[in-house]
Amino acid sequence: MLGLAATRVRWRKLDPVALNAWMGACVVIILFWQLSGGFKPGLSFHLLGSTAFALLAGPWMAMIGMAIVLLALAAWGTLDWGSLGLVFLICVACPVTITGVALRLAQRFLPANYFIYLFLNAFLIGGASFFASALLLVATLGLADVYPPDELLYDVLPFYFLLSWSEAFTTGLMMSIFVVYKPHWVATFDDRRYLYNKPPL
């Protein structure tokens, strides 16, 4: 997946300013992951930032950036090296893919509206993609017999559901700030599409 992402990025056309924002996003997401709570191995509660990263830099650059984040966390000792591939699939590939597909569908079938972009693609998809990752994590741990399914379903999943609202709010707030003050940082937001060239009322 990383190889595919690397081939899909137009490296020579990258905006240096947007690239600086991408590197800054990597640092911020590392901090998000460091501010985690957990009471059992394999279960940690923290914001992912994957949807915000995908909207900010595009899905392919987000995957590459999140891979760098995971490597930094493993080097720091927050993640185990042997779990990086699985964590990437669950916490990066899943939400980034959902975000990318939802954005494509919204652009194709819904009006080019500023509030649709923020409320649907940032807020709702941010929370939904987080909870989808949580479901995938719980299912993986249950199928691997790491923890009893009942414990995962009734004691763990509700915490992830509540945290998904924090992910939704944080993603919506961050993207609202970026598209207002730094729209050139946001690869998936086009002023000409969402703000200009509107048909007369």
Order of neighbouring strands in the sheet with most strands:
1-2
- Number of distinct helices: 8
* Category from helices, strands and their pairing: mainly alpha
Shape descriptor: globular
User: If you average the pLDDT, what whole number results?
Assistant: 88
Q: How far is it from the N-terminal to the C-terminal residue, by CA? A: 45 Å
What is the string of helix and strand elements?
Answer: HHEEHHHHHH
Oligomer description: single chain
Helix content: over 70%
Q: Mind describing the biggest β-sheet?
A: 2 strands, antiparallel
Number of distinct beta strands: 2
Strand content: under 5%
Rounded to the nearest angstrom, the radius of gyration is 17 Å
Which regions have little confidence, pLDDT < 50, spanning 5+ residues?
none
Written account of the structure:
The protein is mostly helical and 201 residues long. The chain contains eight helices and two strands. The chain has helices at residues 2-8, 16-34, 50-57, 59-76, 84-109, 114-143, 149-181, 191-194, and strands at residues 37-40, 43-45. A two-stranded antiparallel ribbon has the order 1-2. Helix 2 (16-34) runs antiparallel to helix 3 and helix 3 crosses helix 6 (114-143). The longest helix is centred in the C-terminal third of the chain and has 33 residues, at 149-181. The radius of gyration is 17 Å and the shape is globular.
What is the structure about, briefly put?
With 201 residues, the protein is mainly alpha-helical.
